[in-house]
Amino acid sequence: MDMATSPITTNEEKRKRTRSPAYPFINLETAITRAKEFYDKEQRNSANVSVANKHWGFTDNSSSGAQTIAALSQFGLLEDQGIGDKRTVKLSPSALRIILDTRPNSEERLTLIKQAALSPRIHQQLWDKWAGNLPSDAQLRHTLLVDWPTPFNDKSVDGFIEEFKDTIAFAKLGESDKVVSEVKGEEGAGAARYVPKVGDYVQWESAGVLQFREPKRISSISPDGNYAFVDGSGTGLPIGELSLQEKPKPAGDLPALPLPSKQTMRQDIFSLAEGTVSIQWPTPLSPESIEDLKDWLKIVERKIARSVASNEGQTKQ
Question: What predicted TM-score, i.e. pTM, was given to this entire model?
Fold first, then answer.
C-alpha cells in the first residue's frame, strides 16, 4: 500500500490540521480551587511538579496533572521554573491575593478574578471580538470551527465553550467589563495592555521587585502566549509581569563590544522566599576562567554568610 495515501497517514495529517488552539483544561473556579489545595500544602513555597501532582491526587506522569499545571499557568495563577525532573511550580502573586483575600464582597479580589478569566489568549480574543456581548453557543461553535484563524477540532470545541462560558460566569464578566483587558498604570485606567513580541526590550517585575539590571531582548514566546524568553536565559517569564523598555545604550554611547566568535551570554534565575537571585556568564568558558569563577562564588558565599550573622546580631540587640 502506498503510505502517502494510506488511512493512517491521512488521519494523522487531518489530526494535525485540526489541532485546537491552546485553552485551559479546567474552568477558572476549579483552577482557583486547585490553587487553594496547593497553598494548603506549600503556602508560598515552590514544589516539584511531581509533588504538586500528588497534592491534587494525580500520579507523576498523569496527563491530568500536566493539564492542570498548564491551566493554572494560563490563568496566571501558577509560575514555573526549570525543566524536566528539575521543574518546580509556585503560586503567583495574583493567586495568593485571590486565595488570601477573605473579605466579603472584596472588589479587589473580584477584579483579580476577572483579570485571570481573560488571561488565556483565546479567552481574551473572544472577549474582544464581541466586545463582551457573546453570541449564542451555536454561533460561537460555528465561528471556532469555521471562521477562527486556527480552527478548533470538532471533538474539543464543545468542551472549550463549556469551560469558557463557566469561567465568564464565575468571574461575573459583563459588557461593562470591556476594560478588563487593560491594566492600570501610573497614568491611571485605560493604559493598553502590553502584548510582547520577539525583539522587544523588556523589564521583568516580580513581587514588586525589578529583576533586570537593564532591559533584555525577547528571543521567543511560548506557544500559549503566556511566557516570554529573553536572550541568555531559558526561564519563561510571565507576560503579565513584563513592561516595554527602550533598547539599552552602551556605556558612553559607544558601540557595544561584540562577544567573541561562537560565544553567547547565559543567565540563570533562582527564586527564594525573599526574592530572586540571578547570575550571568559568557559561554563557553576556559578552564582557567571556570576556576576563577569558582573562587569568586566562594567569596560571595562568605559575604552572604557574614550578612546573615550581622543581621542576627542586630536582632539580638
Answer: 0.54
CATH of 28-177, one of 2.170.140, 2.60.120, 1.10.10, 3.30.1150: 1.10.10
- Please list the ranges in the chain whose pLDDT falls under 70: 1-19, 175-194, 206-209, 223-224, 249-265, 267, 269, 271-276, 307-317
Domain ranges, ordered by start, for the chain? 28-177
Give DSSP secondary structure letters for the chain: --GGG-HHHHHHHHHHHTPPPP--SS-HHHHHHHHHHHHHHHTT--EEHHHHHHHTT--TT-HHHHHHHHHHHHTT-EEEES-GGG-EEEE-HHHHHHHH---TT-HHHHHHHHHHHT-SHHHHHHHHHTTT----HHHHHHIIIIISSSPPPTTTHHHHHHHHHHHHHHTT--GGGTTTTSEEETTEEEEPPP---TT-EEEEEETTEE--SS-EEEEEE-TTSSEEEETTB---EEGGGEEEEPPPPPGGGPPPPPPPTT-EEEEEEEEETTEEEEEEEEES--HHHHHHHHHHHHHHHHHHHHHHHHHHHHHH-
